[in-house]
Design goal:
UDP-N-acetylmuramoyl-L-alanine:D-glutamate ligase; 10 helices; eight-stranded mixed β-sheet
Length: 338
């Protein structure tokens, strides 16, 4: 069981993906198979081929859903660590170094024999992002490599839904977290995850998941006969399965439901949205910060909205370092009202 004084408030569990971004012309995309604006999984050889066509090296930053949550939660002030599999290349070294520099404990990363996972965003002049992802070493994390020892000393585990595509790995992660005595949150991550795993998800809710994060598409995929049901009702329905439901509805704000509580989270309007990549992860990080500080649900929603709104003002999933002093001031100001 977890100790009375845990070493870490939060452990993120997921794929440590290095996000690469490059500005390209529409003509460049003629060299890349697949539709403009889509996301396609590629192998190492194809990723290297595309990178070799770029005139300049792409910009890079740490990425991956649970990793983004962990990174942002650390910046807010939580003590964090991360469980995922890094590769054997320079990107892996850079990823680990950036996490350490941000204050994330890096002792629980696993090491793989393949190149580190990478997601390349090819950004055309119309600001559309064409994504190509090589999961590399991250996809080689095996169920037997995840044990309760990975979660010892952690108060809460946040697991990204993409792990559910490998249900044996998701089972192992949840079982290990529960055995170590941590509370657990699960981000559903995509409607494809939900569509492929509905029965499994409901079985896990019954076994004990504390918080479930979902967006509009994901909550409707979870309750497929719900096309005309208000999101407030869907949040309450999810909460009836024994979880705290956090349903994000983009510019419409969010709904929080737990037991008999139901709260609307007002959105923060952003006049000039640059990039929505990572906004949902930042929202979850803000929520978890408030939740693990014991804030009431409305206050958790307010700080979540601050982080989500700030993220869409910038390119990429990471809020620039220079903006964090203001973000922290606004975020902590969104806390409990006396």
């Amino acid at each position: 069981m977890a100790s009375d004084s845990p070493l870490f408030d939060l452990i993120g569990v997921g794929s440590p993906i290095m996000d690469l971004s490059a500005s390209v012309t529409d003509a460049f995309l003629q060299n890349v198979a697949g539709d403009k604006g889509g996301m396609v999984l590629v192998d190492h050889v194809e990723m290297q081929r595309i990178l070799g066509l770029l005139e300049t090296a792409p910009a890079h930053s740490t990425g991956g859903s649970a990793a983004n949550v962990t990174f942002n939660a650390t910046r807010l002030g939580l003590r964090t660590t991360f469980l995922g599999k890094l590769g054997n290349d320079e990107f892996a070294l850079s990823y680990q170094a950036q996490f350490k520099a941000a204050g994330v404990d890096a002792s629980r990363f696993k090491r793989g024999e393949r190149a580190n996972a990478r997601c390349l965003a090819l950004i055309t002049p119309d600001a559309q992002r064409t994504m190509r992802t090589d999961l590399g070493a991250a996809m080689t994390l095996a169920p037997h490599e995840v044990t309760p020892a990975d979660f010892i000393g952690c108060r809460h585990a946040h697991i990204e839904g993409y792990l559910v595509f490998n249900q044996a790995l998701a089972d192992a992660s949840l079982a290990a977290a529960r055995a170590a005595g941590t509370t657990v949150s699960l981000d559903l991550s995509s409607f494809e995850v939900v569509g492929a795993s509905r029965e499994w998800l409901f079985s896990q809710f019954k076994r004990g998941i504390d918080i479930v994060f979902a967006n509009e598409d994901e909550i409707r995929a979870l309750f497929p006969a719900s096309s005309s049901v208000p999101f407030s009702d869907l949040a309450a329905e999810l909460a009836r399965h024994g979880v705290l439901a956090a349903v994000k509805v983009g510019a419409g704000g969010a709904w929080l439901a737990h037991e008999s509580e139901l709260h609307r989270v007002e959105p923060i309007r952003v006049p000039n949205v640059i990039d929505t990549n990572g906004a949902g992860d930042a929202w979850a990080a803000g929520f978890l910060y408030g939740y693990l500080r014991g804030w009431p649900l409305p206050a958790c929603g307010r700080i979540a909205s601050v982080l989500g709104a700030e993220t869409v003002r910038h390119l990429g999933p990471i809020i620039p370092h220079t903006h964090w002093p203001e973000v922290k001031t606004r975020g902590h100001g969104a806390g409990p009202i006396a």
